[in-house]
Amino acid sequence: MYITREKLENRQIWLYAISLLFGGVLGITNKEFGSSLDWIISPLIAILMYAMFAQIPFLKLREAMKNFRFMMALLIGNFIAVPIIVWILTMIFPQSPAILLGVCLVLLTPCIDYVIVFTQLGKGNEKLMLASTPILFVVQMILLPLYLWLFIGEEMVAIVHIGPFLEAFLLLIVMPLIVALLTQLWANKKAIGEKVLDFTTWLPVPFMAIVLIVVVASQIGKVYRDFEIIVGVIPIYILFLIITPFVSRFIAYAFKLDTGAGRALIFSTGTRNSLVVLPLALALPEGWAMLAAAVIVTQTIVELIGELFYIKVIPGLLMKG
Question: Which residues contact 243 (CB under 8 A, 6 or more apart)?
Fold first, then answer.
């Protein structure tokens, strides 16, 4: 059967589900091989980000950037409402500092990659999500150290250093963004550049699947080993997925957002930045790194299952057209 890009994109949710399952089986049945994949996570994420940035029509996104109400709602939702929700949930379900650090790393950082895919599948305005990507990442990198200090306290200062955050920003965001921009400029001037840019449209879905396989295979052993400890965070993740859409729906109403923008806001606040913060967790001291990384991978698994409900419930019930 001939596979087109459209067919691949239409079936990507199931591809991601299969990738999670395959990565889990691979990591559990061959623990040494799975653990050896840690080093390749960041390079794969960088390629994935390049592929996604290359699809952004930057010149056409100026109009989306002018949507001041959406940007304000997005910032309030992700950086005021979400931290309050996370604080309440972690008070109800208290965790040890290492576990709490992993929870905070993943829940306090809005997603900037596959949220665009899910927003589109959920019939939201994906162009607004594309336009907000640089803003969301810069703001979360600025505020995350403050949030960690507020949630964890002075102990966090001795554990978390700014170096890994800056490295992740430069290698996972800035460099892929620059290469993507250069590719688009090349495509405007040369036919071969246009072919290269066209080829990049095939990359996001398969690389997302590969990243999920590698992340789960490399970390599932840690999740399995410490499952009795990590299971305590699952209620936090489930309740987070349930609560945030309703809070975001209220924010969308308060800012009088249209249907597409409102759905994009809901997907943004409900979808977290697990793939980008995982390298930050792995850069922590060994004892903290193992637990924090396992907590983040657990959130990824719970979230991707939740997204299957999101793409049906958000446009069908919570925010109808």
Answer: 85
- Give the chain's mean pLDDT: 88
Please write the tens of the pLDDT for every residue from 35-55. 899 889 889 988 988 988 887
Q: How far apart are CA 11 and CA 310, in angstroms?
A: 16
Cα 107 from Cα 223, distance rounded (Å): 18
Three-state secondary structure along 205-220?
Answer: HHHHHHHHHHHHHHHH
Q: Which residue has the tokens 């996001």?
A: 204
Nearest to 101 by CA among 46, 159, 59, 30: 159
Question: What three-state secondary structure class fits 272?
Answer: strand
Residue 212 near residue 23 (C-beta atoms within 8 A): yes
* Pairwise CA distance, residues 94 & 211, whole Å: 31
Is the separation of the CB atoms in 141 and 79 below 8 Å?
no
Ramachandran region, residue 125 (left: φ > 0; alpha: ψ -120 to 50; beta: rest): beta
State how far the Cα of 23 lies from the Cα of 210, in Å rounded to an integer. 9
pLDDT band at 251 (very low <50, low <70, confident <90, very high): very high
Amino acid (1-letter code) at residue 109: T
Measure Cα distances from 276 to 3, 159, 269 in Å. 30, 19, 16
DSSP code at position 95: -
Domain enclosing residue 91, as ranges:
5-318
Q: Is 86 helix (H, G, I), strand (E, B) or coil?
A: helix
**Rounded mean pLDDT, 287-291:** 84
Distance CA 41, CA 32 (A): 16
**β-bridge mates for residue 110, sequence order:** 272
If you ran DSSP here, which 8-state letter would residue 226 be given?
T
User: In total, how many domains does the chain have?
Assistant: 1
Determine the distance from the C-alpha atom of residue 259 to the mean position of all C-alpha atoms in its chain, rounded to a whole number: 22
Count, residues in the chain: 321
Q: Where do we find the tokens 């997204």? A: 307
N-terminal to C-terminal alpha carbon distance within the chain: 35
Is residue 45 packed enough to be buried (19+ CB in 10 Å), middle (13-18) or exposed (0-12)?
buried
